[in-house]
């Protein structure tokens, strides 16, 4: 009788290497699956290592451009910022990884999918809800959560099974990275009164070490998608990597956040998003000149819901599709160029222009060119203030607190 | 027969000086009223000048502490940011000025109130709606909007009436300032592709000129109100002025915004809010550790509505009172200390602590001290993902777009 | 030299007949344009009358099916209810009428468009904003608002110009009607303490006169659009007219509403919407079984914004398009049949079924067939309540008011 | 050594009677606690029965007026309607019962609290989250969820332990009732295509059996609280019971709802809320004339959040307190009288009046008394439509879909 097959999200690290063995012990044939979503992995090395530690098959997938176009694009256009601070790094890659795991499972006739998350983070929720949404018939296994070993017990098991122990095992940090940024939790970061040490950062220099000369970028957008920097066109994934590099050198995009996890606790995380913060800032400023007021004032409601929903693992859900349809409809006008100055940790928008710009100098000006009909304001104010005025007449000054 | 009296919001500048005469020409006895809301006016000079240009009486009022406690406090606790960028500088002072104008009108038995706004800005709306809310029986006059003179015509009238012409008349900028910041519009700023020139700024240094040594501040909050800096207690208005000074020296708080005015046009404004941005950042981070998730996720909805409402001139309205009641209820837990690093245009929160902190290291940690029950996650995820799972079972993969 | 042309929204009533003459007096060649959007007009009579009172050309357009498919459909799927009571009758037809006026203006090379609204209602806003959105170069004229005659003056003018005076001129009501319902304002209705008299109603019987036998309808929906009643398929406009008739006979859909107009006043209106209320109720119940919880809980936010926006005359705006894209994405699952009982003023949904139903008896049941994993609840509750629990531990009982 | 004490929410039914024994078997001394929240219980009988089946102490508490004033009042003023249909019956009483259980636990030095809910409903969440919020140190036990017996096993255990088996054990319904209504789930109701049978109802007559003569009520409100009916003053709990009786006789308040439970499933419930629906309708109409537009348009956002939060068991939470503060601030103007006609299942508001009414006949009228300045509309419309107009000028007709 054939062994049941499980597809494991494999990173090459200790946890998932041990999981290959542990799942094999449970009677599974393990198929490893590793994605590059922009963290710059050595996919060949990881592919080989998976086989070395016992996988029966090992997939590696360069998913950078798919990640950029299908996931990051929405985050950018939707201005998704969980709790107004965190631009959803891991939360964005989890659904794509889940999708690839399910695709491999279907190809391999696997009956189960496994991930390396513990039982107290958000990622376990994101993986499991995404996988169930994509194929409710698949079993989902979370070896690390199930075995609930201490670090020592895990190392003992690894030694016993001849699983190589990584050299940097004593790193106090737990890192996840993709195109859209790098997240870091644990260890010394757990005290929210302590400043994060420099060692916590990997994509950005400290502001103290940033160059004294600013760098100017002209970023061009078409339908809300950044397409070129200073006239050079890039595929979206490359453009973001470019910006991670350039803005990172200027110390742009460090975020230190005490956030509310879905599983009910507050945790402190340190993020670096040089490209993401540069693009989010530029995109917002382009919308400021191209979106009509009523739309500009409602879109943040959509953004907040979309942010929570993605953070909470509901990427593959009808609500996400409906929110995306809203966002997509709005982006047709978001064309133009934004000039960004990278300097000392800032991505400052110094100028923005667009063929779709609704900023009209002839209406806005206080010079003699003024085309605004100032007399219209009198009637406007009369009707605008009428409800409050009637309220005051009826209720006298009861409503005025001060 | 006695002349009708009008109370004029008097700034000492050309427009309102001319307005004193113009209103007198219309048959009014003009009572000038000037407030200091933190812009550092020479009140004695202005009081005298009003009389010199024809006012029959001249009031000057130091309203800094009232402005701080009754207006700025709510803006801080409510995180009011119009269009996620503008922390409501003039929009906050207009209701207080209106209130004082109405009080003086009542004291002087005046039948009218006048302001110096043109017909295309937001401030005319704020003044008129506030005054009508406070006393619907008062007539409101807007001389500048009514006379609709060109600059040249106004100067000719001033010369004819012996009204002193200010030296800085050729300034290309139109400035309004108070405790909470400084706003600047017009002239060269009207091209949104051009970077604002250094001359546009008055409260902050350029990042290029900011010191190479950071300054660390420990700001203490009680019930959401900042009370001390590095152990020294200040009244709120002084604390903010202190921060304007200290954070301004580090280039903190420059904002360049193309915004949607209530009167239907987009305009480009440059703001400087060193104290405001420092305090808003610190307050948000203190809330991040003291507010429960459900509350933290809903408060931004309140903030957005409050921001729009204040921007739109509806300070004296029942909705503002209800939103304020919401905010006030939330602030009892916002106690603690935030450590802010002022450096190169940034106000970076490096640490936060509170006796009301809901961040629990024993729950958040990945060390052996962990008290979080990881097994609870299994049941949680099952029910959390159940609606999406049922949806997928019923509708197969129809919902999954990618 | 050729006369300037104006396209007038012509109803055949006194106001717009007088407007034909008045506009002619102003030097315009008047092109009348009358739409049937479901009120059952005698289009031939109106076409002739327009020419009789002086129009140089007279268009009549049967727009019922376009109105149903492009305007009413969105109102139904979007559950638009202004202030949770008014299902947007006139507010829906105004943009379509505006669109047709603009089309005729383009065809006729007219430079102006005119409507018959007064200066205190919502419809003037809806017409003018829609027309400006469709073609900002067109002049918009509002004769009734401009001439501001008393009723007597208007009649004198009409007599003088040989314009026929309608017989029912003394009707105390002002009626507007289309497929989606009938609205009535003015006269005795203006006292909100008085019950509306029976004479105010035209589409529905009083509950007192409704039959003692209920009528059962099975309404089938495809992608959120009602397609058949009791197995008989109808085009949407006919289906609604059918329901107006059938549900009207049972007294369904009377609404008595004191509402907030856009122009700042409260007004009291009486509406009748037998078909609309039947369909809105049925559609909501079908969504209750076919939409996933997260989506069902957010859609009302979209509905509220869409209702306000349409009420406020912003149909032709990018925000409406984005909200519509959201709604459209959600309707693919809204397939199935709803059984409605019409009886004594009620449209009661007694049953609903769908191939996309997410109601799962095996999960919901308390019988032995139960497939719900009750043990999952323990973990779920632990994490669901964790933030509140930590809050209580930290802040003791400060938060518990009672 | 003394036995550990547990306080059990005791209803007198089979489940909680068995729970007394089961908890005793687990080594607890069981203190029974039964509340009357308006369901008309025989408290003496229940008190005695608890002791008979093995409780060491038995509390009975008449909590009707506290329930009305502290819980129902907020639901009424906040217009809480979960999914726009369910006015939160059980969801309102659970926090009060939890509070009383905790109070008794403190008085009796009990270390645990127990409830009789199963593992698939909402009430388990409401009890457990409320108890943890009130005293995180208390253990919470859910005997029915823990023992997970079939009905047969439970009856066998009861017989063995001499616990009386209720006569109506074979009722296919599961009922919960309080002042605010009666809820019913299970059995035949589980098929959402089938109409609920008459036997499912207990508080209301069928419309078919409702009297042919309407009943008129004048309900007076003070600060949003109903205080009298037709001139007779009642304490709130009695006023609601009165209305349950009077409106129930007219068949008012039947609700048939397929709802989304917090635990992830859809369930079909039948509710009867004659008093609640009458009061909610009347209160909304009084707000329609007394609340200013901006407030009236935002309050539903508060209502929706408050409804979800209470439904989801978060009554004792800081967000609820903040939402309540908002609501309370708004109610000072909600004074006046509403005339309601009870007839054939309807509670129709025929008239409303208030000293705080913002409806102004002189502004609303179309008669010669009109005081509305129609000329103001011209300027208003110009600025109101300006953003859309500029958008169209810039983007031509790209935005107009139709």
UniProtKB/TrEMBL annotation, chains A, B, C, D:
<protein>
    <recommendedName>
        <fullName>Argininosuccinate synthase</fullName>
        <ecNumber>6.3.4.5</ecNumber>
    </recommendedName>
</protein>
<comment type="pathway">
    <text>Amino-acid biosynthesis; L-arginine biosynthesis; L-arginine from L-ornithine and carbamoyl phosphate: step 2/3.</text>
</comment>
<dbReference type="InterPro" id="IPR014729">
    <property type="entry name" value="Rossmann-like_a/b/a_fold"/>
</dbReference>
<feature type="binding site">
    <location>
        <begin position="9"/>
        <end position="17"/>
    </location>
    <ligand>
        <name>ATP</name>
    </ligand>
</feature>
<feature type="binding site">
    <location>
        <position position="174"/>
    </location>
    <ligand>
        <name>L-citrulline</name>
    </ligand>
</feature>
<feature type="domain" description="Arginosuccinate synthase C-terminal">
    <location>
        <begin position="173"/>
        <end position="389"/>
    </location>
</feature>
<dbReference type="GO" id="GO:0005524">
    <property type="term" value="F:ATP binding"/>
</dbReference>
<dbReference type="InterPro" id="IPR024074">
    <property type="entry name" value="AS_cat/multimer_dom_body"/>
</dbReference>
<keyword id="KW-0028">Amino-acid biosynthesis</keyword>
<feature type="binding site">
    <location>
        <position position="183"/>
    </location>
    <ligand>
        <name>L-citrulline</name>
    </ligand>
</feature>
<feature type="binding site">
    <location>
        <position position="122"/>
    </location>
    <ligand>
        <name>L-citrulline</name>
    </ligand>
</feature>
<dbReference type="GO" id="GO:0006526">
    <property type="term" value="P:L-arginine biosynthetic process"/>
</dbReference>
<keyword id="KW-0547">Nucleotide-binding</keyword>
<keyword id="KW-0963">Cytoplasm</keyword>
<dbReference type="GO" id="GO:0000050">
    <property type="term" value="P:urea cycle"/>
</dbReference>
<dbReference type="InterPro" id="IPR048268">
    <property type="entry name" value="Arginosuc_syn_C"/>
</dbReference>
<dbReference type="GO" id="GO:0005737">
    <property type="term" value="C:cytoplasm"/>
</dbReference>
<dbReference type="Pfam" id="PF20979">
    <property type="entry name" value="Arginosuc_syn_C"/>
</dbReference>
<feature type="binding site">
    <location>
        <position position="259"/>
    </location>
    <ligand>
        <name>L-citrulline</name>
    </ligand>
</feature>
<dbReference type="InterPro" id="IPR023434">
    <property type="entry name" value="Arginosuc_synth_type_1_subfam"/>
</dbReference>
<dbReference type="InterPro" id="IPR001518">
    <property type="entry name" value="Arginosuc_synth"/>
</dbReference>
<keyword id="KW-0436">Ligase</keyword>
<feature type="binding site">
    <location>
        <position position="118"/>
    </location>
    <ligand>
        <name>L-aspartate</name>
    </ligand>
</feature>
<dbReference type="InterPro" id="IPR048267">
    <property type="entry name" value="Arginosuc_syn_N"/>
</dbReference>
<comment type="subunit">
    <text>Homotetramer.</text>
</comment>
<feature type="binding site">
    <location>
        <position position="271"/>
    </location>
    <ligand>
        <name>L-citrulline</name>
    </ligand>
</feature>
<dbReference type="Pfam" id="PF00764">
    <property type="entry name" value="Arginosuc_synth"/>
</dbReference>
<feature type="binding site">
    <location>
        <position position="116"/>
    </location>
    <ligand>
        <name>ATP</name>
    </ligand>
</feature>
<keyword id="KW-0067">ATP-binding</keyword>
<feature type="domain" description="Arginosuccinate synthase-like N-terminal">
    <location>
        <begin position="5"/>
        <end position="164"/>
    </location>
</feature>
<keyword id="KW-0055">Arginine biosynthesis</keyword>
<comment type="similarity">
    <text>Belongs to the argininosuccinate synthase family. Type 1 subfamily.</text>
</comment>
<feature type="binding site">
    <location>
        <position position="86"/>
    </location>
    <ligand>
        <name>L-citrulline</name>
    </ligand>
</feature>
<feature type="binding site">
    <location>
        <position position="123"/>
    </location>
    <ligand>
        <name>L-aspartate</name>
    </ligand>
</feature>
<dbReference type="GO" id="GO:0000053">
    <property type="term" value="P:argininosuccinate metabolic process"/>
</dbReference>
<feature type="binding site">
    <location>
        <position position="122"/>
    </location>
    <ligand>
        <name>L-aspartate</name>
    </ligand>
</feature>
<dbReference type="GO" id="GO:0004055">
    <property type="term" value="F:argininosuccinate synthase activity"/>
</dbReference>
<feature type="binding site">
    <location>
        <position position="126"/>
    </location>
    <ligand>
        <name>L-citrulline</name>
    </ligand>
</feature>
<dbReference type="InterPro" id="IPR018223">
    <property type="entry name" value="Arginosuc_synth_CS"/>
</dbReference>
